[in-house]
Description:
single chain, mainly alpha
Amino acid sequence: MSYAAFSDIVKLCPAELFELAQAELGRCGCNGRLAGAVLAVGGLVVLAERMLGLPVRIGCPVVLGNMYGMLADPAFATVIGLVS
């Protein structure tokens, strides 16, 4: 499989997720009226901004204790969120 083909497949999942989120925001009447921003992890900021039309920022996990230096990185946000 070529890199381009793989890249196209990988992009479909987040794009589909943001389409579903956009549809749900529209269904509940919240589209364009959110007070905050969308929080994205894993390099999805540009895609989320483009598809949702909302401000997006990279989320960093809140890590307490002596593991802070090792885990306070956006790459660990999903795992720490699941464990918390």
